[in-house]
Amino acid sequence: MRAASSPSYKTLNKKLKVHVAGPWVAAIAAVACAVAPGDAYSDVLDVRWRTQLSHEPTTLKPREPAEPLLTADGKVAYIGTSTGLAAIAVATGAVLWSHKTREAIVGRPVLADLPTEGTAASWGPTLYAATLGGALLAVHPTTGVLRIENSPNLDVLVHSPLAADSRYVFAFADPSVLLAIDRGSGKPVWRWSAAVDRDYVIEGNAGPLVYGHNLYFGTPTGKLIALSVRDGGLAWDTSLELPARSPYGDVDSTPLMIASRQGPLLVATSHSGGMCAVAPADGRIVWRYTADGLGQPVATSMGIAAVSSLGELHLVGLDGQRRLARKLIGPMAGALAVCAGGLLLAPHETGMDLIRMTDLRTVSRLATEHGFGAAPACSGENVVALTNSGAVVGMIVHAEAGALADPR
User: Fold this and answer.
1) Is the bond preceding 109 in cis, omega lying within 30 degrees of 0?
2) Would you say residue 168 has pLDDT above 50?
3) Segments making up each domain of the chain, as ranges
4) Maximum distance among all alpha carbons in the chain?
5) Tens digits of per-residue pLDDT, 397-406?
6) Is the model's pLDDT at 199 over the cut of 80?
7) Which end of the chain has less neighbouring CB within 10 Å, N or C?
């Protein structure tokens, strides 16, 4: 971390508001803004508040926490941590409600706000989250009241983001299981699974994507799968791996749906197979961008961005051609987030980099004691991020940073 005598650190601390969540009081992880010399950069990453949610800020569990989920208006963030689920006001960092759980929540919650069918038809919007041990929470998003008091355990290890449609919540679990769960009862309705005959798989936080009448997700065996949302019937499966490049072709990214000249395309990454665009109707691979160990792809105004396991940032056009690639300043980064002003946020083991999309150069850095294992959530210039120590950080990213000269 940067020394407390740093001018940018002093400026930062004048603006911070600190909140603690009732009995979850713990030492606040120190946060400092480490930027290149020059006053122009001192307020690019403007930290407004931090709220400690977990019991043990020095114990890194889970190592990869859940990505925060923002409401459509950007006013409330839902946070899953090693000790529970909480709703936080984005403007102030105040805890609106919280639920303590016995096990960690490492997959992003889902806010099911579509018109509901079946047993949950009278509920309206409901927030769902699952613990690592398979306990499902169904919560009123505003009041925090539990919709299901005694939800049955799913008996699987849930470490991935959840998805939902008008009837079901979908959870992908270790090692390769997909569950469709009734929104009203919390009971699994149908189940899909595949054998994983490997001694070693590359763990990721890949979740399912609902699009139309199908559900799309990747597996540790290198396949992209399409199932019917109603009954789990197999529509198609497509292998994305390239065994000649690596024996591990795991598809560890949540599929991304993009609009292209060829129509809608699914984009997913395989550890050996790079980034692939697939036709959602039949699973045909339309194009492949070859690179090793690419993580979660994100859609930007300039194309599709993803970070490799070596810390290389790639920007790929909608035609599958490379636009830019650059090695990041810091160590291996996690999933990216797109924020205002043509900027990207890249979390990593020691903090978070703010990257200008036009040339993939880092213009500022936020340094933390324990780093970030999950992507931040962005709404305009507002950013909410969860550190590996369970501290939630609220920031403003000033859009004019995208026009600044390279600080290096």
Assistant:
1) no
2) yes
3) 1-105+378-398, 107-204
4) 61
5) 986 655 554 4
6) no
7) C
